[in-house]
C-alpha cells in the first residue's frame, strides 16, 4: 500500500501516518513519488485497510499498490490520456467499439467482417495475424499476409486496425501495417517485448494477463510509458478463477479502480472473458455501465467455420444489434456518471 501525501503536508503529518502504521505492527518507508512524498507499508501479504489512512491530515491518496507507478498514475498526469485516430478519439469520454474476427483467415472473410462492423458503427477493426495458441497444432495466423489483408480492410472501410504482435519481428511488421499494436494476455509480462513496443511510434493495447493483479498490470503499462510510448490502452479480458461456467471470469471490478488510479483509457473484452456468444452482449453493456472507455468484440461471418474462437464470436447481425444497444445506452450512462460519479 502507498499512502501519498498532499504537496503541502508537514513533517508531523508524515510522522502521524508512520505512527499509525507502526501501531498496527507494520513497517513503513518514506519515498518520493512524482515530486510528492509517499509512505509505503512494508508488508506484502496482509495490508491494513485503506480507510485507516484516508482521513488523516496531509494524506491525499491511498493506493492499493506497493510499487510507485511514476508514469501511468494520476499523480503523474491528472487529465485523461486521449488517443486520436483521424476524427476518432479514444479515452475522451466517448465509448469506443472495436470489432473483428479473432484471426484474419482470408481476404473474403476480413473484408466481409470489416464492412459489416463499419456499417454497424464500429470505430476500429481488430484481427490477429500472429495468434498465440495453446496448442502448436492449432491455426497460428497468416503472419505478414494477414497484416496485408488488414491494411486492405482499412483502405476499404476507413477503420483503424488493431493487431497483436508477439515478438520483435512481428512488432516491426505490425508497425508497418497496423494502427494499434496489441500485446496479448500471455505476453503482458514479456518485459523484453514491452520494452520493444514501448519504443514504437504506434499506440498500444495492453491486455491484462489472466493471472495478473492490478499492480502487475499497472507496472507492465509503466514499462511502456517508461520506454517512451505514452499512447497506451489497458484491456481487461477475464482472469482465471474457480468458476467453470465461462472461459475466464470477467473482472469488471478492476474498471473503476483503473479509471481512478490511471489516466490511460480502459477497454473490456467480453468475448475472451466469457468464451460464449450468449454472454458477450450483457457483459459488453455491463462494461459500459462500469465506466469502461470501450469494448473489443469478436465477430465472424460464420462462427461455425471460424479457425479460432468461433464459440465466442458474434454473427454480423448480432454485433449490429449490440452496437445499436450500446449506442442507445451511452448518453444515458454519461448522464448517470454526471449525477453519481
Ligand atoms: C485476442 O485478442 O485475440 C487474444 C488472443 O486475446 P488474449 O490475449 O486476451 O487471450
Ligand atoms: Mn480470440
Strand order of the largest sheet: 7-8-9-10-11-12-13-14
Instruction: Give me the Rg, rounded.
Output: 21 Å
DSSP strand tally? 14
Overall average pLDDT: 95
Structural class: alpha/beta
Number of helices: 11
Could you walk me through the main structural features you see in this protein, from its secondary elements to its overall organization?
37% of the residues lie in helices and 18% in strands. It has 341 residues and is of the alpha/beta class. β5 and β6 form a beta hairpin. It is elongated and about 70 Å long. The protein contains eleven helices and 14 strands. α10 runs parallel beside α11. The strands form three sheets. Strands 7-8-9-10-11-12-13-14 form an eight-stranded parallel beta barrel, surrounded by seven helices. A four-stranded antiparallel β-sheet has the order 2-3-1-4. It has a two-stranded antiparallel sheet with strand order 5-6.
State the main characteristics.
341 residues; alpha/beta; 8-stranded parallel β-barrel; 4-stranded antiparallel β-sheet; 18% strand; binds phosphoenolpyruvate; binds manganese (II) ion
How would the blueprint of this fold be written?
Layout: E1 2-5, H1 11-23, E2 28-33, E3 36-41, H2 51-54, E4 59-63, E5 83-85, E6 88-90, E7 96-100, H3 107-120, E8 124-126, H4 144-157, E9 161-164, H5 168-177, E10 180-183, H6 191-198, E11 204-207, H7 214-226, E12 232-236, H8 254-261, E13 266-268, H9 270-274, H10 277-290, E14 294-298, H11 316-339
Parallel strand pairs: 7-8, 7-14, 8-9, 9-10, 10-11, 11-12, 12-13, 13-14
Antiparallel strand pairs: 1-3, 1-4, 2-3, 5-6
Helix pairs in contact: 3-4, 3-11, 4-5, 6-7, 10-11
Phosphoenolpyruvate binds at residues 102, 128, 184-186, 207, 237, 269, 272.
Amino acid at each position: 500500500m502507498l499512502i501519498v501525501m498532499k504537496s503541502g503536508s508537514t513533517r508531523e503529518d508524515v510522522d502521524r501516518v508512520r505512527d499509525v502504521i507502526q501501531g498496527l505492527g507494520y513497517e513503513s518507508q518514506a519515498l518520493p513519488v512524482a515530486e510528492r512524498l509517499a509512505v509505503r507499508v512494508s508488508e506484502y501479504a496482509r495490508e491494513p485497510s485503506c480507510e485507516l489512512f484516508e482521513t488523516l491530515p496531509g494524506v491525499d491518496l491511498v493506493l492499493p499498490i506497493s510499487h510507485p507507478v511514476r508514469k501511468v498514475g494520476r499523480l503523474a498526469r491528472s487529465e485523461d490520456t486521449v488517443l486520436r485516430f483521424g476524427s476518432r478519439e479514444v479515452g475522451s469520454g466517448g465509448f469506443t467499439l472495436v470489432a473483428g474476427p479473432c484471426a484474419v483467415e482470408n481476404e473474403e472473410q476480413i473484408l466481409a467482417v470489416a464492412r459489416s462492423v463499419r456499417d454497424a458503427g464500429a470505430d476500429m477493426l481488430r484481427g490477429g495475424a500472429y495468434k498465440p495458441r495453446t496448442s502448436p497444432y492449432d491455426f497460428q495466423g497468416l503472419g505478414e499476409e494477414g497484416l496485408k489483408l488488414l491494411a486492405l480492410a482499412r483502405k476499404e472501410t476507413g477503420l483503424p486496425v488493431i493487431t497483436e504482435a508477439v515478438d520483435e519481428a512481428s512488432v516491426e511488421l505490425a508497425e508497418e501495417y497496423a494502427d494499434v499494436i496489441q500485446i496479448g494476455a500471455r505476453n503482458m509480462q514479456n518485459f523484453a517485448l514491452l520494452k520493444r513496443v514501448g519504443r514504437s511510434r504506434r499506440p498500444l493495447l495492453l491486455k491484462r494477463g489472466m493471472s495478473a493483479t492490478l499492480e502487475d498490470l499497472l507496472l507492465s503499462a509503466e514499462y511502456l510509458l517508461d520506454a517512451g510510448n505514452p499512447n497506451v490502452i489497458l484491456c481487461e479480458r477475464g482472469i482465471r478463477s474457480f468458476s467453470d461456467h465461462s472461459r475466464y471470469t470477467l473482472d469488471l471490478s478492476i474498471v473503476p479502480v483503473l479509471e481512478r488510479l490511471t489516466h490511460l483509457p480502459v477497454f473490456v473484452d467480453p468475448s475472451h472473458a466469457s468464451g460464449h456468444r450468449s454472454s458477450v452482449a450483457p457483459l459488453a453493456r455491463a462494461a459500459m455501465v462500469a465506466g469502461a472507455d470501450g469494448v473489443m468484440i469478436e465477430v465472424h461471418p460464420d462462427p461455425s467455420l471460424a479457425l479460432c474462437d468461433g464459440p465466442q464470436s458474434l454473427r454480423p447481425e448480432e454485433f449490429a444489434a449490440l452496437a445499436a444497444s450500446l449506442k442507445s445506452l451511452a448518453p444515458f450512462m454519461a448522464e448517470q456518471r454526471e449525477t453519481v460519479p
